[in-house]
Amino acid sequence: MLSSELNSIKSSKRSIFTIIFLFIVVILGELITWYGNYYMFWNYAKQTHRHLSYQNIYHPTMTTFLSGNTSGQFLQIIIIWLLPLYLILISAQRIIDNNRNDSNYIYTSRYTKFKQYLGVSELTQFSIFTVFFIVLFGLDFVIAELLFHNGQSFMDLEDSVKYSHLLKLELLHPNLAYISFIVVVSMSFGLFAVVVHVLALLLKKPILVHPISLGIWFFMVAMPNSSTYFIQPFIEYDWGTYFSALISYLVICSSIIAVGNFWLKLRGRYVYLN
């Protein structure tokens, strides 16, 4: 299943274009930040003959995609807010197309095999997208380290550590903290890829997959325990806010997946046994 899905992605121009687009946007955001903070900063110092230190240059973790603290923040918004669309374009669109053509495998496979296929396909989606986002955000982190390798500025966040034990730990171990965020966020995006996958299988009208996926995503971003509270590191929220946001996200995604699986199995039994 994993090999088959990877081959499908590799053979799809739409999937490849979307993946390339995501990498370009993330790298471009890093370059914009480098030009605005590092390159212009040292040019100004050279022209004015001023002695400036790396204390005025952003620490690499401050410029990363997930941190969203710099001039490339608008690019982060493009990806984060429209994440369901990218997940659909990379993988779920093939299921949607099959639904349009009445050729979905739900109706061409035996019910017992479908139950097994459902679990394996969801695990495949989770694995592929978790690894994909780890690679994407990991590459961004490496580029940030190369471009801002001596930077020491945390944008005066040090003044806020008295309000957040979490932020204090992040500033004490910024690289380790950011790597931890990469893993957690990538897994959470992988989980939402499963949500999109289930919706693509479940909805009989393919045109509904896009708006419903976006609606669920927007709701989780806009709710009081916003998902952005655990997606973005180096903010002034403490452990309570972080875990409340993460748990709310996990509960919503898991509930949709569980209900969707139940309905798909029930519908499959009705189709094959009647």
Describe this structure in words.
It is a single chain. This protein has 10 helices and no strands. It is mainly alpha-helical. The longest helix has 37 residues, at 111-147.
Low-confidence stretches: none
Order of helices and strands: HHHHHHHHHH
Shape: globular
Look at the helices and sheets and give the structural class.
mainly alpha
Q: Main sheet, how many strands, which sense, barrel?
A: none
C-alpha Rg (nearest Å): 22 Å
Per DSSP, the total helix count is 10
Q: Helical percent range?
A: over 70%
Mean pLDDT: 85
Concise synopsis of the structure shown:
Keywords: Membrane, Transmembrane, Transmembrane helix. The chain is built from ten helices and no strands. With about 270 residues, the chain is mostly helical.
Could you give the topology of this structure?
Elements: H1 2-10, H2 13-48, H3 73-81, H4 83-100, H5 111-147, H6 165-172, H7 174-202, H8 209-222, H9 228-231, H10 239-273
Helix pairs in contact: 2-3, 2-4, 2-5, 4-7, 4-8, 5-7, 5-10, 6-7, 7-10
Structure keywords:
0% strand; mainly alpha; 10 helices; 274 residues; 73% helix
